[in-house]
Amino acid sequence: MQIWGPERRGGQGLDAEQEESGNRAILALLTDPESRDLMDLVLTWRPDDEGGAYEAWSRRGMVRFRRALLPDGSFVFPTVEVVGENPIANQDPHALDTVAAEAEAARASGFDAEDPARRFVAPEQQSYPFACERIAQLFDSPHAPDLALSPVDWAAGPYKGNHGALHVRQARAPLWLRGPGVKAGRHRLAARAVDIAPTILEACGFPKIDGADHSGRRASERGVEPDVYLERQDGRPLAELFEAGRAPARRAYLFLLDGQHMTELDEQLDEAPERYPNLRRLREGAAVLEGGSTVNFPSITWPSHTTIGTGAWCGHHDVVNPSYYLREKRETVSPQGQQVKTEGFSSRSVESLHEAFRRERSDLGITAAIYAPFGRSADHAALEGRTLGDRSRLKALTREYAVDANPRWEKDGHKSVIDESNLDNRGIAQVVELFTGDGPPPVFVYHELALTDGAGHDYGPHSDGLRDALEESDRRVGRVLDLLESLGLADETLFVLTADHGMAPQDGDARHPAEHFKTLGFAGVVAEPMIWLRDLAVEVVRQADGRTGRVVVVDNDAGPGGERPPVEGAEVLVEAHREGERPEEVARGRTGPGGVYGFPTPSAVPDTDLAVSIRADGFNPRRLRLDGKRLALDLREALYGKGR
After folding, report:
1. Which CATH number fits domain 173-195+237-505: 3.40.5.10, 3.40.720.10, 2.60.40.420, 3.40.50.300?
2. How far apart are CA 378 and CA 351, in angstroms?
3. Taking the domains of the chain in order of start, what are their residue ranges?
4. In terms of pTM, does the model score above 0.70?
5. Interhelix angle for 415-436 vs 391-400, to 10°?
6. N or C: which end of the chain has fewer CB within 10 A?
7. pLDDT (tens digit, 9 = 90+) per residue, 382-426?
């Protein structure tokens, strides 16, 4: 068994120089009155003498675990330490898989099970599917944070519905497949979002290539025959959903109902099937996964879409969050804020589904990303500025299909929902033009339907507004199905329906606990649900004469060339701490060029009794002894007491 830590080290997690600020931040987030009731988990990775371990901290307990590679190439996640309760012990992918189960969990949590807007589920009633894998993958990217936060079910911002957490309710998406050779029916199977891309390519009969698997090594490096479909493939094809000897699908069409909560979708199709005739007919004849698809962590749009479109976790495609901090550049970027021209943020070490289809099926037709947040290399991708087709006809079709929109959005004045309805309408016009225009029809379409996400946020995931949005989306799904059937293409197409994340109702008075980080007095960069600490790396040396010492202070985050910039002007205080006496100031000053400050030391005072404190604007303070020992708090004792 080989310990398999972060693939590309670049400052992510808590290194030795961050033990002080990291421990204080975890303690504050879990115990401060402003954040403690909103926090579920604080996640990180730390190096140690055995290859490092991942950590999940909560008020009810903590767990440390490693990622290890077995001789057969699979990963296991052995537990190193548990204090109190292991907060991610329940990883049941089938937990809370119906509205009734969610209601029972809310009741057991002490909340109103009858009110869908207040049907909150406490951490003790949640599960965390594939938690170890999803935590570990995040810290593979040098863009990953020092601390990743997973708040309680109902505390993700001022919305009626939201997502982003590790737990099942916000991290499960529906997953249906219908097409040539698919075994129709319900399957007691839980997949991951990284399984979708390789499943599509297997269904379409793609050849296996010498790409990298979940360990980051190519087949040739592992000494095996080509065994993946993509340049980087973290998932596996769900081969058990297909009949043996089937004819491959000639094309694939991926519907993504953004933010559509799986239990609400199932409930509506079962309780009010007449409202959703097209989703119902898509589901009939489909393989429906009862456990759905467990999405990327964090369970948020841009990282999750990129995972679905590449078969790689965000720790490998590098879009780790809607917004994230680049340590080497000292800047924050925001693909989700930018919205357009974002395909360049993803790592070139991963391959998009569009690129795979271009590699193998370019002779059959183009590929299209219909307002999908990830559409790298698609021939048609409006968000990337590549729009094919006749512009005047696109405008005419957009006007024609405007009848699909529910007038409720204008009446209620929800601008974001109006915008997403209009976006989805323009998307349908693009699909019709691409399939009926002069060129060959698309061989692969990644079709984002955004309306369900906006309605889930503004009205709630179990609301009449969401159901109206689902009904409107159903009409658009029907237009696509009718179009492909009329062209004789439906029977040769693999249809996939999924979502990029789940969603849970929110307490409008609760704010994401990441908001409290800076009010707690810490220095760092915050982009919900992640924190990048701004820390100092400090070296202290006592000279051989015993009468002098030196401190060197640099930025703990390395620059592009790996160098750590010196910090000039940092305030340094040296104190002697003799037993039974008050601390005595020995020296005080500021670092000069090179981040260096020299000071006198009493020769009779040993290194262990001399404490050095360093403060610098924009950084967390440091405190250590002259022998180099960091004066960090004992986090286990502080959280769980001496009898831990």
Report:
1. 3.40.720.10
2. 12
3. 2-92+127-158+509-533, 173-195+237-505, 536-640
4. yes
5. 120
6. N
7. 999 999 999 999 999 999 999 999 999 999 999 999 999 999 999
